[in-house]
Fold this sequence. Notes:
Layout: E1 18-25, E2 32-40, E3 46-54, E4 60-61, E5 65-68, E6 73-78, E7 86-94, E8 106-109, E9 116-120, E10 129-134, E11 141-146, E12 149-154, E13 159-162, E14 169-171, E15 174-177, E16 186-191, E17 194-196, E18 201-209, E19 212-213, E20 220-222, E21 230-235, E22 245-246, E23 254-257, E24 269-274
Antiparallel strand pairs: 1-2, 2-6, 3-4, 3-5, 3-7, 7-8, 9-10, 10-13, 11-12, 11-18, 14-17, 15-16, 16-23, 18-19, 18-20, 21-22, 21-24
Amino acid sequence: EEPIPDIFDRTLGIPAPLVTALAASNIQTTTARLNGQISDDAGEACQYRFRYKKSGGSYSYTAWTGSKTTGQTFYEDIDSLVIGSLYYFNAQAKNSVVEGVWGNELSFTTKPPAPTNVSATDGDYTDEVVITWIRSSGATQYQVYRDGVGLGWLGDVNAYDDNGADPPTITPGSASASDGAYVAYVKLILSGQSVNNGTTHTYKVRAKNDAGESGDSETDTGYRGHGELAYQWQRSSGDAPSGYSNIDGANTAIYYDTSAPADGGGRYYRCIEYAEGA
């Protein structure tokens, strides 16, 4: 004797309705819409329901409802879900005589929470700002925002090196050279110069998974630092502002140029300033 197919009620020997679970939609942090379709109504309009559970948990059931026939779709909105968590669900239908079997099982993950403990370095590096955070449950990607502008989606990471942050700058100051005041040298003085940290930027991070993006994390500020200000005085080759070359050992803000022409010939001076990162 041929076995009775699963679509038949084994006790009564009559056909039972069949359903197919469809992909969940409208997935948010704590809510989602479960979708299904009547595959076979077994001859009359059916009611339907869903069951769903968090991974590792037990099932919750929606109430029997509706009146659907073969090919028609149905849905149920559920809430009180756990943020950033994996859920499984399937559907079942019944007619006036018998309940069908539970259909195929699908899964979805709720939107992740925003990353926490976002921190940006304050001058620790001359070539970048390093942003770190604590990963969000259920997230697969992250994006860092600098001053509100996204820097591109990353993988499942918890740090980002922002070498596009504004670099440190140098305020050059002004240079002066003595005009015949000393017989043995020309006194060179640089004043008002400084080196400044890079622009202070504001950073935040978002998480993302297949359901969508999280909200914004808390913000933190960070900036690129700089090295010590260094100097190199240069002297022109003649009495014109051209043909400059380095003066050996002239590496201080105040310098006495003892190698200036002894005949009193005029020369132009300038100072090149530099610092790591600037």
